[in-house]
Automatic annotation (TrEMBL):
It comes from Methanocaldococcus fervens (strain DSM 4213 / JCM 15782 / AG86) (Methanococcus fervens). InterPro entries: Zf-like. Residues 15-88 form the Cysteine-rich small domain. It holds the Pfam family zf-like. It comes from the Archaea. This is Cysteine-rich small domain protein.
Length: 119
């Protein structure tokens, strides 16, 4: 394998697999898929997946600390498939602008959650 391919494969594995090189790994569970390290649905406000917690200053913030759903391999992969299908005819900038719609992202979440419920 040429060096450029190795470097690219390393990036893909770090993003799509269990990134054991990350200083925070495992932040949810051993063997988790790290593709959605930063959840595209945040805040989803789905009480099966998270909850509002109180900060020291008394304000509330959505916590996904106990969310395992988005880190399951089949769920992470299905989310990516849905996003790629919706953006296949767009440039990266157009795709990001298109997906910067919280309601659309929550629709994707619900579609995937119907297929792969939180267990």
């Amino acid at each position: 394998m040429i060096e450029l391919a190795k470097n690219h494969l390393k990036k893909v594995l770090e993003v799509c697999g269990a990134n054991r090189n990350c200083e925070y790994y495992p932040c949810h569970f051993d063997g988790q898929v790290c593709l959605w390290c930063f959840c595209p649905f945040y805040p989803c406000e789905d009480e099966e997946l998270g909850e509002y917690v109180e900060r020291k200053d008394g304000t509330k913030v959505w916590s996904c600390m106990n969310c395992f759903w988005v880190h399951r391999e089949e769920v992470a992969t299905e989310i990516l498939k849905e996003i790629l299908e919706l953006t296949k005819d767009k440039s990266i900038d157009e795709a990001i602008e298109f997906l910067d719609n919280h309601e659309l992202m929550l629709e994707i979440k619900e579609k995937v959650k119907d297929k792969y419920p939180n267990r």
